[in-house]
Specification:
- The protein has 96 residues and is an alpha+beta fold.
- 32% of the residues lie in helices and 25% in strands.
- Helix 1 runs antiparallel to helix 2.
- It is globular.
């Protein structure tokens, strides 16, 4: 399933900046950054549960926020890209 994850982490304090880096690192481990605080994650439900637990353990719910958008398995018809950065195919060939 495709899940779009967005976050807003308070960065006024050093602790907030650390949380921001930790949230971004977890998202990178499970998905593809498509904008500064936006990740597309092609992920199975068990891995998503793990990611969600990790993210919610990092943030401070009093000053930070996470949003999950469930696009499901038929996500290709729900995403349209216009502009500068080329889109990627999360199910395509990975070249390292």
């Amino acid at each position: 399933m495709m899940v779009l994850i967005t976050y807003d982490v308070e960065t006024i304090t050093p602790a907030g900046r650390r949380r921001l880096r930790k949230v971004a690192k977890q998202c990178v481990n499970f998905g593809q950054r498509v904008q500064n605080s936006v990740f597309e994650c092609l992920i199975d439900p068990a891995k998503f549960t793990e990611l969600r637990y990790r993210l919610e353990s990092i943030i401070d719910p009093q000053s930070d926020s996470l949003r999950y958008y469930y696009l499901g398995s038929n996500y290709k018809n729900k995403i349209e890209h216009v502009g500068h950065k080329e889109s990627y195919d999360p199910e395509g060939t990975l070249i390292i």
